[in-house]
Amino acid sequence: MTEHPGGSRNTERSGRRELPDTADTEALGRELAADLRAGDLVILDGPLGAGKTALTRGIGAGLGVTGRVSSPTFIIARQHAPGGDGRPGLIHVDAYRLADANGAATLDDLDALDLDTDLADSVVVVEWGEGVAERLTDRHLLVRLRRDDESDTRHAVWEWVST
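^ tRNA threonylcarbamoyladenosine biosynthesis protein TsaE, sequence as received from the core. Prediction below:
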């Protein structure tokens, strides 16, 4: 387990927001990124189409990482280099394909990605990681995304969680 650097600087922040479109989801990601530092873990929870990758695009933009942030579904993890000196990189993980027959990501597969090493220099965002990735750090930002059945409006609720 990696200890969170920087003490309690930003980790008391929580909130909720309605996200009418993709641009709003990306804007929330940029806003959240302002408080993120190397060593932070972000776990995204939500069904298919809830906006997890759009939120990660916003986080990447807010961090100023290089390269296009897109879904790592088929390659499991994408690494984005820092956009400047002293800025963290981004490791974007999609744990969906790591799921066992019961739908839960397995610890062995997650360990094989060596994410705890990447935490030293990067922000790690894990889609579908709830129930597994939390053990990588002593605290993480949990973002729950939901989409209205009748519209494309999404809702986000986020909080820092100590493990």
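The first strand starts at residue 14 and ends at 19.
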